[in-house]
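REQUEST ID: PR-0412
SUBMITTED BY: lab tech R.K.
PRIORITY: routine
TASK: structure prediction, single protein chain
INPUT:
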Amino acid sequence: MVHYKHIMRSRNIGQNPVHSISRVLPPVNFSIVSKIFLLAIMGFMSQILGYTEIIYSSPTLSSAISNLVPGFTFILAVIFRMETLSFSNKGTRAKFLGTIVSITGAFIVTLYKGPKVIQNLSSSRSHSPSASLGGTQDN
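STATUS: complete
OUTPUT:
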């Protein structure tokens, strides 16, 4: 019974956006196609650069960078004057402080060198009597 309810609800929800479009879409011209192509190339390159980043750096840096997206978005909004920096506003102070804290936290997580959790396997094997797989033990 639940299965049929989900089918009917998804059919009803799926039809509403199609029927509610009342405006006429603009014709597809070279400008629109070139913008779509440029966005696709930028998305593709960001994926490739993200995978290359993991190869040349630590996975910690990659996870820290993904958490910085809201901070970078706020910085870009300020640069392009989509956001105003009025420190009398609580929301602006919270965004500014959150951006500073997230960038500082990403630096700390990336640059912190703590104690080794897993020691090098070759150093622990060199102290054992049968270090190699084909080694023999003396009785």
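NOTES: Residues 67-114 form one domain.
REVIEWED BY: pending
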